[in-house]
Every structure is written in C-alpha cells, then in structure tokens.
Specification:
Two copies of one chain form a homodimer. Chain A has 250 residues and is α+β, with helices and mostly antiparallel strands. Chain A is built from five helices and ten strands. In chain A, strands 1, 2, 3, 4, 5, 6, 7, 8, 9 and 10 form a ten-stranded mixed β-sheet that branches. At the A-B interface, strand 4 of A face strand 4 of B.
C-alpha cells in the first residue's frame, strides 16, 4: 500500500528536509530523517520516505507532501496521531491518505505555493525571529505589487536561480505572485508555480524588497526576465521567512 | 541622572530576568545580565539595573520596566538604538526616558498586566511552541469567563501562590481578569493587578483551564478564595505562554 502524508514543521531547528550527514559522518537533524525514523518505530519495518520538496535549512512548511510504501495494521484515521505522539513538537503529520501505487510525491506535483513573511518595522520580531525576515526599511506595497505581477507567466527565470541550479532549462511557469499585508507589521509575498529553481522564491523576494525600498523600479523585473543575469537580481533572502504552503496533485 | 527603560524580550532562551549563576558558578544567560552588560559597554561605566518584575525562565515581556543611574553623553532619543544595535535579537529596548531621582521601578509600580496565550487545538503550534501553551482539550470560553470574573477584587490569593511565596500577607488586588479569543485557535487570559504572588498568574490560568475543560465548576474559584488551599487550585501552568504586557507608574 502507498501512503501520502501531509507534513507541517518549524524548520528553524532542522537542517532542511533531506537526510544528510555532517562532515564527520554524524547524521544531521533533518525533517526527512526524524519523520522516517519515527514512522519505522510505529510501523516496525524499514522504509523509504520520498518528499516532494527539498526545503532548505531554516525553511518551514505547513503542506509538505511525502509518500512511502508499507503494510500497516493500524487504521488509517489513527495513523497521524500514532506518529505525532512520538514526533518532537516542531513537526506534525497533518494528514495521511492511501494513494494509488503510481502516485509519486515528486513527479506528481502539479503546482506549489510558498509564502514569505517580511516583518517591516523598526521594532524587532522577537519570538517570531525564526519565522519572519526583519526589514527595517520602509517598503512600498504598491511598488512591490507592480513588480510581483510582472513575474506571472512562463519565463526564463535564470536571473532568479542560484547559479548552481544544475538544470538544463531555466524556463518555469509562475501561476501567482502577489504581495499582501499580513498581521501588522507584516507583508507577505505569495508565489505559486508549476516548478521552481534552486533558491528561486528567495531570490524573487530579495528582488521585490529592492523594488519596495526604492532601489529599483518595478520594471527592473522585466529586464531580469528579458536578459538573464543572476548578478542583476536581488540577494537570496534569508530562509527563515519562507514557508511551503501547499502542493497540488491531480 | 536616572533613566527608565521599557524592555521587550522573548524569554525562551533566557533563565528569566534576574542575574544568577549556575551551580558551577558560571553566569546564566538572563535578561538583566545581557541588558546590563550591553548598557555598560555603551555607557562605558559599571551600573546597577533594577527591574520591576522578576520574570521566570521562559516568560516573555513586551513591557518590562527597569531603571539605572548614569551620566550619559549620548542624546536620549538615540539611546534605545545605541543599545539595541549591540543587543542580541531576542531582546529590545522599546523606550528610554529620564525620570526623577526618586523613581523606583519596583516600589513605584502601581499596576501590572499579564497575558497568557493558550493554543486550543489538536494541531500543534510549531513555530509558536515557546510562546503559547498547547491545550488539546476543548475549552469552554463562557465557563472560563465566569470563573475569571470571580477573581476580580481584593482577596486572599494564598490558594493561587507557590507555597514558597515568602510573603507575610497573601491578600492582593486583581483589577482585571478576563478571557478573550486571540487569533484562531488561541484563547488569551488577561490578568491585571496591583501586585502578584509567586507563580500567581500561572496558577490562576491553570485553574481557569480546569474550569474550561469541565473538571471544575466556575464557583470552585469562590471556594479557593474563601478557604485558602494551594492543593485545591489548578497546576502551575508552563511559563512559555506568559507575557508581561505593561506596568503602570503614577
């Protein structure tokens, strides 16, 4: 039987999603590692856990998706609670469903949405310091919205990719890109698309912040799409403000 | 010159307000210690920092008040920024004002308000896990409000004090005690008073939760006030949900 899990986590104490070891060979604390080892305890058999999105160190999720194969004797509706009761309190299984055997968390993902939280204030976020990006400079919402709208569509996003992206094509489709006020003093950048390049959302947000603070005009985005040049886009903004919200499957 | 500071902090990485050392004599990380040593760097002279409220390990504040004496050459309006630029990002000076030489942060405090955040959901608070108390059981807001209102006034609060309170009288005056919905799924208990006993707010909240989940009737509070008995009140609820909101001076 193949199972699909929806997973939420606070990424601040994880070395990202993917299992990995430190230079000395010791395992690092990762979401995949923690969830897989807990699942193995509950199920009583080794398994492979395939996650849809390799979120970086410090990035959060409310809608990460993963799949695994197992023969479970525990009823499906009790599975999330059985796992959660053994998971640490910075990660949670939100849902478990049975899927077809050809379901694949990675290749089946049709669309993903991310949210980036900017704390736009001279005051500090304090308890939210691992959840939002603190921007002291006053950001102009209208300018950011203007720039964000220009990213929607199918474009070559090479300017918005880490140069180590390792992909043969940098053409991607952004289905939604907007900036909304959150709870005061937050601004949220929401980006949805059918696929993303390495660090793409963080570079998009870094660029929108440069526009919002008046460093660039909104049409600078047009130039970045027309003539790919990573050096002319904004910085890769820090990971703590980023959250993977949902992944859509057919 | 005497200065009054208003200080905000996330208490989750502090051993409370008051400077103290571990059993091996090493200094523990405390808010008083971090702010005092930073102030000394900025001002260039040793000083004593007197805080109004000795918040416990894990308790937060947005309106802690402290005073110190110094001869500053730095303009008053630039003092908060000068200190903040050297403070770690889990503590912030919100305001600095000059006060009369007889101002005392402790004895001058006329009223204080605390807020306790309860996360009332089967889902986990994740990023807010050090900021809210997670209560899985469904809480009845009306029952909690009924019980909270009975605490307002001048009463013997011995039932609501840690038995090591060390005070000659346990009579205190609560000026406000109410329960309000916060952002979904939060419930907030707001307690204001002219003075508090050791752990008093946390025991009040622990008692209101017992009423809210149906373990006790709201009038159990009347019995606790009429016949002091710490053992018959609720547990001392965990510190992470508690925040010192403001302190009023004349």
């Amino acid at each position: 039987m193949r199972y699909k899990l929806t997973i939420a986590y606070d990424g601040s104490a994880f070395h990202g999603w993917q299992e990995q070891t430190a230079e000395d060979g010791a395992p690092l604390r990762t979401v995949q590692g923690v969830v897989r080892s807990t699942l193995q305890q509950v199920i009583g058999q080794p398994l492979t856990l395939i996650g849809a999105s390799r979120t970086d160190t410090g990035v959060h999720a409310v809608g990460q998706v993963a799949h695994f194969d197992a023969d479970l004797r525990i009823p499906l509706d009790r599975l999330p609670m059985a796992i959660n009761s053994r998971l640490p309190n910075d990660v949670e299984i939100r849902e478990a469903v049975i899927v077809d055997n050809d379901f694949d968390a990675i290749s089946g993902a049709k669309e993903k949405q991310y949210r980036y939280r900017i704390w736009n204030s001279t005051h500090r976020p304090l308890a939210l310091r691992h959840t939002v990006y603190h921007c002291w400079l006053n950001l102009d919402l209208d300018r950011m919205r203007d720039a964000a709208g220009r990213l929607i569509g199918t474009h070559d996003f090479e300017s918005f990719a880490n140069t180590a992206h390792g992909r043969t094509t940098t053409v991607r489709t952004i289905t939604d890109c907007r900036v909304e006020p959150g709870d005061d003093p937050e601004l949220h950048v929401i980006v949805a698309g059918t696929g993303f390049l390495y660090n793409m959302v963080r570079i998009i947000v870094g660029t929108l912040i440069e526009v919002g603070r008046g460093h660039w005009e909104p049409d600078h985005v047009d130039a970045l799409l027309a003539e790919p040049d990573r050096a002319k886009a904004g910085p890769t903004i820090e990971p703590g403000g980023l959250c993977l919200e949902w992944i859509r499957y057919d």
